[in-house]
Request: fold
Amino acid sequence: MIQMNDFKSEPQQLRQAMLGAVQRVLESGWYVLGNEVIAFEKQWAAACGVPYAIGVGNGMDAIEISLRALKIGPGDEVITTPMTAFATVLAILRAGATPVLADIDSETTLLSIESAARCLTSKTKAVVLVHLYGQVRQMGAWVDFCDAHKINLIEDCAQAHLASWKGKYAGSFGATGAFSFYPTKNLGAPGDAGMIVTSNEEVAKLAARLRNYGQSVRYHHPEIGMNSRLDEIQAAILGERLKWLPEFSERRRQIVESYKKGILNPMVRLPAPPEEPSAHAYHLFVLTCEHRPELEAHLQKNGVQSLIHYPIPIHKQTCCGYLARDRRGLTNSEKHAATCLSLPCHPQMTSSDIATVISAVNSFS
Ligand SMILES: *Cc1c(COP(=O)(O)O)cnc(C)c1O
Reply:
């Protein structure tokens, strides 16, 4: 079976480097918020082209702490997409703010600016823009939109590690960029990890306090914070894995090129091309098909795993049916949720795996 992810077949050299990193931490005797975290924060900030990075427990907390560090909370509205990981909206709710759902653009699957404009009210304080599947698009227009309405742009970069648009990296456009290093992400830890990047020193300082009980110096708590710290072992391993990220991203891009050339079945629709090659991290390769359950079963029978990102848009979740939304509805999101299917697209795939996936899709009828 060709899996959606295959960590066990990663290069032996990477495995050795990860084990070396773990050993380094164990021998240091320092496990939480130490030199490894500081070093990886510096590396990630530099990679994203921003001055500050704050390591946190996971991607969801990176969004919640971003909001809180921007003083967004109870009574404030935050516009986002229903076509995202549940964590995006949960983070807004956890910050005490009110999510307002705008629809996606049916071509790109990303948040529609026109729909977001219909969701603006006097209470709107931010847009959480999700770079879905790894795509970074229309950043000039989003920055202008948020500036014009004096609201914050928060980038959910959980799927877009080091994607760049006109020479700037994902996470460097908004007030903050929130990253997840969940194992399946393009840069993934063997566990939970996340990071906030920002160019604003005040926001960086407040975020660094909020992740650690709201503590300024030991035993002094000017803020009601939380415990969302990045630990030393994950940071040390992420530092090693970061060295492989460019090569792994290039491999993802090659796989997508092969899919785009090779998949010729008129029963499936391929994803929209990126605005420029670098403006996509190729986290997920998502096609659409009117006969999705049959396609899924056909792929399975031919040895190809597939997954759905995401089968249930946020407003259809039992606990989120009440959420405010675009008055014209969220029909593009609903349509996409009903037809999208993600094919395996990970750096450990071989040429023969790629060929197997392509012929499995092409033989569907
Ligand atoms: C994975 C993901 C998150 C959440 O990250 P965690 O580290 O799992 O908390 C948030 N948003 C998007 C778009 C994601 O893909």
